[in-house]
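Entry
Fold in token form

___
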Amino acid sequence: MSVSALIALLAALQIGQATTPAPDAGPRADSVAEHRAWLAEQGLLAGRPRLVPGQTAAFALATERHCGVTPGSLLTVDPTTGALSFAGGDGVQGLDRFLCVFAVLQVAVAEDQGPDRDAAE
């Protein structure tokens, strides 16, 4: 997955918005399953940060730490809206760290905000 595709994914996920995305606006089930499997293979599924309404900034920092990324180097949160966006990623070493962050984001949006959030735990 290219960096531009990852940026587009972030925009599509609408993390931190006041409303939960419609089921068809969120990540595809097969894609979420692939990201869950990748996180599990890397030993990163257990203990992944959970997306809690109103705590997007804490989620962003926890996600970066969980994935070995310097907090604030890849994700940023608008203090007014709470919306999460891509901060540029300068200094992030390794594609796997990018992939980890975006896998956690995709799984979080599908499982922590979606209609199946209770079943995913």
